[in-house]
Amino acid sequence: MRTVGVEEELLLVDPETGEPQARATAVLARAAQEGAGQDVFEKELHDEQVEFATHPQSKMADLGAEIIRCRKDAARHAEGLGGAVVALATSPLPVKPTITMNSRYLWMAREFGLATQVRLVCGCHVHVSVESEDEGVAVLDRIRPWLSVLTALSANSPFWQGLDTQYASYRSQVWDLWPMAGPAEIFGSAERYHQCVADLMATEVVLDKGMVYFDARLSQRYPTVEIRVADVCLHPDTAVLVAAIARGLVDTAAREWQAGREPFGHTAGLLRLATWRAARSGLSENLLDPPTMRPRPAVDVIRALLDHIGDALDDNGDLDRAHEAVAALMRRGNGARVQREVMERTGSLREVVVACVRHTQA
To answer: What Gene Ontology molecular function terms does this protein carry (predicted)?
Structure first.
């Protein structure tokens, strides 16, 4: 069974006002003083956010328990400084982000200007183990059309700088300000993948390989495929669902490769439209059907996704959990729907943040 790990970025906020706080450095120092967090928590581009990474897990129940524990630990460290953490992919309230002081991030700020200053967004990255780079690249080629569905499921960023964006996932739109972000064309082999990365590096537009922000890529640090299209999920159980589906996609793609089945030949341009549609609509309207790239109701596309990976989900013991989690998500709504419902009820973006602080550990 393939192992799965999750990286989540969380916002640091004032628990009273809901406004982001630039306290990541202090939060990480507090974690270090307690003798915990050195291998879990990390700085991110902005001092208003903190990232954690789980250990590789085989069982989704164990992964879910670790996500909850890491969120609670982050919350405890923030509370010790008078703050709070919240799993929101963008800040509903206006903010002027603070660049974290290290050489890499300062280079990015100089090179990319305003795009770096405004890009306070929080994502969820899923790592799924692969047996080799050849298998990993074959997986990347075959999961491409399905990744936009993960964006729709996880969508958790409807508000930006005090405004309703009319998107379910505005994070994905802000993320695309990076020139090296988005879907990739089919690679065909590990050699061609590395040549593509080398060509990008040769442009000197990117500083290092870590800045090659494909929607899914080979990890630089682990023997994994890293899937990077999801908003940080408001609820921990949604993050586990995204992870289970990601593993199912990797398993299914690897089997297709072993059976000699070719990937869908959709262009990166079509995939970019699918991502835009998922970001705009979330779960409330049509998505683009991954095999055909034609509009189809979101519920039907999600059902098709579960059918596509059904054998892998079953083999991993995730089939019932995934169907139950999808049913619960469709009833409750993703983070974008929850945020808008709080806003409609209270008329206050502050209340949106306060409510989501509670949801983050629920």
So the answer is: ATP binding; glutamate-cysteine ligase activity
**Bridge partner residues of 46 (DSSP):** 99
- How far the first Cα of the chain sits from its last, in Å, is 28
User: Three-class SS of residue 6?
Assistant: strand
Which residue blocks in the chain are alpha helix, DSSP H?
24-33, 60-79, 103-112, 114-118, 133-143, 147-154, 171-175, 190-202, 236-258, 268-281, 298-308, 310-315, 319-332, 335-346, 349-360
**DSSP 3-state helix, strand, coil percentages of the chain (rounded to 5)?**
50, 15, 35
The pTM of the full predicted model, rounded to 2 decimals, is 0.97
In order along its 362 residues, the chain shows pLDDT tens digits of: 999 999 999 999 999 999 999 999 999 999 988 875 557 899 999 999 999 999 999 999 999 999 999 999 999 999 999 999 999 999 999 999 999 989 999 999 999 999 888 889 999 999 999 999 999 999 999 999 999 999 999 999 999 999 999 999 999 999 999 999 999 999 999 999 999 999 999 999 999 999 999 999 999 999 999 999 999 999 999 999 999 999 999 999 999 999 999 999 999 999 999 999 999 999 999 999 999 999 999 999 999 999 999 999 999 999 999 999 999 999 999 999 999 999 999 999 999 999 999 999 87
Cα 157 to Cα 233: distance, rounded to the nearest angstrom: 10
- Looking at residue 180, its amino acid is M
